[in-house]
Design brief:
mainly alpha
């Protein structure tokens, strides 16, 4: 997935729940790397990347939420 400034990087958490654990892990890694690149661009004076940075941060948070929910479900099943 290549991040473009025009593209909205919003995925509903419902769609993310259908992803496998590997897809979630790789997406989170990719979002984090892209966020780092965009932060360097922002520090370099390109001010038009701020909305994309915000969307990426939200995307990372959604991925982390889905991964945490899965971990909690596994713990609940293990205890039952």
């Amino acid at each position: 997935m290549k991040l473009e400034k025009d593209k909205k990087w919003k995925w509903p958490a419902d769609n993310m729940r259908e992803w496998t654990d590997e897809e979630l892990k790789s997406s989170q890694r990719e979002f984090t790397q892209q966020l780092l690149r965009l932060r360097f661009q922002l520090a370099g004076g390109q001010g038009d990347v701020l909305p994309v940075i915000r969307q990426l941060r939200k995307g990372i948070a959604r991925v982390q939420t889905v991964r945490q929910q899965r971990a909690l479900e596994l713990r609940a099943k293990a205890q039952a």
